[in-house]
Amino acid sequence: MRIFSYGVENPTTHRVPTPYYRLETMAFIRKGSGIKISNKKDLNQYAIAKVRGVKHTNNITNGLSNISDFNTTKQMMRFVESGRADVALTNTVDGLMVLRELGISSIIPNEKSLAILDLFHYIHEDHKDLIPRIDEKIKKMKASGELTKMIKDAESAVIDKNITIEN
């Protein structure tokens, strides 16, 4: 699962053209903080926490200066809970699962996501001849509803078993 820019930054990989999943870049804030974030520009005025090396949060915070990087989503959420940062950035599912796992109810997702990014499969250039076959299979699975069912089942398994998604 890679965002579009992964292929631009990794020229030895080739993108399968049809996306098969998506992720939301979500801001998580403390309840009652009064923080309102409607777009990327609104982040400028806040102290931001994010997990180090995650492409979608790196992209949305590019050019911002008040950023704290963490090794895990758990560390990041505890930091925001303590009031040492205003906003935690991660994907929605990961953020909600970690908050539930930690028993933190004082942090909530923003009203709307900051970005919704299609996710793609990438193939090393040595195997780029497989791209048309993989692309065709993704299209067929989407059309039949099989991909939607697989995704729903996988998300439910992760959430029900409280498996942490590593960013």
Overview of this protein structure:
The chain is an alpha+beta fold. It has a single domain (2-161), classed as Periplasmic binding protein-like II (D-Maltodextrin-Binding Protein, domain 2, 3-Layer(aba) Sandwich). It has 6 helices and 9 strands. The strands form 2 sheets. Strands 1, 3, 4, 5, 6, 7 and 8 form a 7-stranded mixed β-sheet that branches.
CATH C-level class = Alpha Beta
If you average the pLDDT, what whole number results?
91
The CATH topology annotation reads as D-Maltodextrin-Binding Protein, domain 2
User: What is the number of domains?
Assistant: 1
The first-to-last residue Cα distance is 11 Å
Shape: globular
Classification by helices and strands? alpha+beta
For the biggest sheet, the summary is: 7 strands, mixed
CATH superfamily: Periplasmic binding protein-like II
Number of helices: 6
